[in-house]
């Protein structure tokens, strides 16, 4: 079937709108601030045959672009093998197993078969970051875990909703293994309801244009995404471009991990990670799905005009991860993979390709989600709590302008929850929440500024855990630009300042009322020789106190 451009465009926008409405419904109905306010979630439509990506919400986390299609594919394969119960209409599966196409355990996936004419036409799937899934520390970010079981409850694909009815026995098992379980029902129902919204909206789109027309449009959009990505690659000078990015430590062994990357440009873009560090003891391993998705999202940062579709990934090849910490196997711990290692992978991609296409690629961004979890007991409200704080940082400078200040993480578009919401929900007080002046790397175009915030525990007792990065090395400058300022974490207990041994990774730090935590996130790397910076821009930097680094 040949489609005219207008119909094709309208259907493409319609599929996008279905996903956007799922995203909006999920956030509006969720209880947890990390979903409702920070939008740490994503929704999409996936092929019934192999789980490949058809469409994803514009407001969803980019790192889930790849991982959700792999988890959906694994679910389809396991159903075909008979190892997972076959679906019925209104069933909803739940899964968070990192080794089955996932990320870390806190990213919980729901998948719903979409039926049309008595058969599965596609799958609707979403991911939400639950604030806790059990494990050794509140929030799941165990900085010194040596096995995945220490990080939380690992769920294989099971039907949580059977023909639309919540399986109370499975739900009871989940609630018996997580903290603050009474609040999870709001997130569970929101996540399931978002998929129901998608079913209704997608059904309306098919009713309007017809199944055959929409199927033809999906096939054409995939081909066009592939061809558009191939055209971009053809414009990149052929050659081999190398880079190295570093993870501070694995949280257990206080030595850097190396991500070694060689990008070969030809008819395809080949990303070879041969020579990267071996699997590590601590939680900074990355599962295969997250590693692949990290490459895909980095390329999308460089070529943002390519539509989100499985076709966009076809001209990309990832090799050399076997036997490295970028291809974690059970029981390696992985709590740092989605939010931290993924961003080091993207940084390596940027550092390699900026040499080939400097006009399109930025210097390194802050590259950490700033995972800070605080769990304890609030005596005033007579209840336990788990608070999860993520934070932004500076983006790298580029050929046209300075980097963005306090931007979201490279792998997501999540925003930090409003201070007012956090203070209402949890027994904390923010003493500061400001740009970190002077943190951007110098350059022809300097890096953006990081964030500087300080939180006090107002009452009760709690335990703090951090899984962050870029505390040892600041974000890389490019083409002569200087590195951005590294991450800094301080815990002030009884008036004494404590700096974690692993700089931005530690767990189970006991806090009492009046104790504080201060975090200063990285600035972005500078782009180009600082000596070539415009004199007026330098004068403004000095006037505003942006140097020296802090």
Describe the overall structure:
- The protein is an alpha+beta fold.
- It has two domains: 5-225, no CATH class; 362-550, no CATH class.
- 28% of the residues lie in helices and 24% in strands.
- The protein has helices at 5-29, 33-36, 64-81, 168-175, 184-209, 211-234, 288-302, 337-353, 419-425, 535-543, and strands at residues 41-47, 53-56, 92-95, 107-116, 119-129, 158-162, 165-166, 239-247, 257-265, 269-272, 316-319, 371-378, 383-389, 428-436, 450-457, 461-467, 488-493, 496-498, 505-512, 516-520.
- The strands form four sheets. A seven-stranded antiparallel sheet has the order 2-1-5-4-3-6-7. A five-stranded antiparallel sheet has the order 14-15-20-17-18, with helices on one face. A four-stranded mixed sheet has the order 8-9-10-11, with helices on one face.
- β10 (269-272), α7 and β11 form a beta-alpha-beta unit.
- α1 (5-29) packs antiparallel against α5 (184-209).
- The model has no long low-confidence stretch (mean pLDDT 95).
Keywords:
alpha+beta, 550 residues, five-stranded antiparallel β-sheet, 2 domains, seven-stranded antiparallel β-sheet
Number of domains: 2
Fraction of residues in helices? 25-40%
Q: Tell me about the biggest sheet? A: 7 strands, antiparallel
What's the order of the H and E elements? Answer: HHEEHEEEEEHHHEEEHEHEEHEEEEEEEH
In short:
The protein is of the alpha+beta class and 550 residues long. The protein has helices at 5-29, 33-36, 64-81, 168-175, 184-209, 211-234, 288-302, 337-353, 419-425, 535-543; strands at residues 41-47, 53-56, 92-95, 107-116, 119-129, 158-162, 165-166, 239-247, 257-265, 269-272, 316-319, 371-378, 383-389, 428-436, 450-457, 461-467, 488-493, 496-498, 505-512, 516-520.
